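job 3f2a | input accepted
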Amino acid sequence: MRKKIVFLLAFLCMLLLAGCSNGKETSKYNIEYLNKDKTGIAEMPYDASATTTDALIEEFFAALSSDPDNVEYRKPIPNDVEITKYSLDGALLTIYFDVDYLNMKEVEEVLCRAAVVRTMTQISGIDCVSFYVDEKPLTDVNGKMVGTMYAESFVENPGEQINTIQNTNLTLYFSNQAGDGLVKETRRVHYSSNISLEKLIMEQLLEGPESKNARSAIPSGTKLMSVSLVDGVCYVSFDENFKNQDYSVNEAIVIYSIVDSLSELSSISKVQISVNGDTSGVYRDSFKLADMYDRNLDYIAKTAEADTEVVEETETEEQ
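job 3f2a | predicted structure (319 res):
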C-alpha cells in the first residue's frame, strides 16, 4: 500500500512537471515598446536578471533604450535622448533626460512617456514617475507641467492600455470673466483611442480654459459620472457637485458651455444633462434636466471673440 502511494505521488509530480514544461511560460515583467509606425505601444515579456530595485531600474532603462528583437517594434527612448540620472524618493521615481528629449514629435513623446511609466511602475515599490528635461519639470505642448504619472495615467478603462494615440482640434466653450457670455477656445489635444470624443470634450471642459479672458462655467469640484451617445443624443451625468451653484455665472452659460461644446461634434444633435443619472427637477430656475438641449451660439460674448483661440495649433503628425 505504501509503495502504491509513493508511486501515485511520483506519477502526479511527473504530470505537474510535464504540464509546466508544455505550458506557456509567463515572465514577471514586460517592456513596453512602440509599434513600427510609432502610433501605439505594445508589450513584450521580459525576464530580468537584476533583483535589487536600483539594478532593475538600470536594466529597464537599458531595455527601453535598445532595439527589441521583434522588428515590428521600436524602442521608446530614441538614440539621441540620454537619461542623465534618476532619483527614487519613496514610491516616486524621477527620471532626468537631456535637452534632446524635446526633439521628439508630440505623439511619439506621449507614447514614450506611456511606455517608460508603465514599464518602470512594474518594479516593486515604484508607484509613480516624474520626468525632468534639462533639469526642469517636463511640460506638455500647452506649457502645462505634466507632473507625476502613474500606470493608470495611460489607461482609459481597467485592463486596457493605450493602443494608439490620436490627435484632434477641439472647440470648447467656457464662461467669460463676467459670467454672462461664452468664450470659444480651440485647443489641440492628443488622446488614447480608447476614449470617445464626447468624453474627451467633457474632460477638457472640466479641466478649464487656457485663455486668460475665460473661466470654467461648470461648478468647481464637479465630476463626470458618465457620458454616452445614442442616436444623436449625448447623455451627460455629473455627480452632486454639479448642484453647487456659483451665481456669478449665469445658468444659461453653464448649460450651453456643455451643450455647445459637445454639439461641435457632427454626431451630436442634442444634449441631456443629469445628476447621478437623475433627470428630475430643474437646474437652478429654468433649465429642466429632463429636456434635451440644442446648440445655441447666441450666448457667445462678442467682445471676446478675437481673443479666444489662445492655444497654438501644432503641425499634425502623419500617422
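job 3f2a | Helices lie at 2-22, 53-64, 106-120, 197-207, 251-262.
job 3f2a | closed
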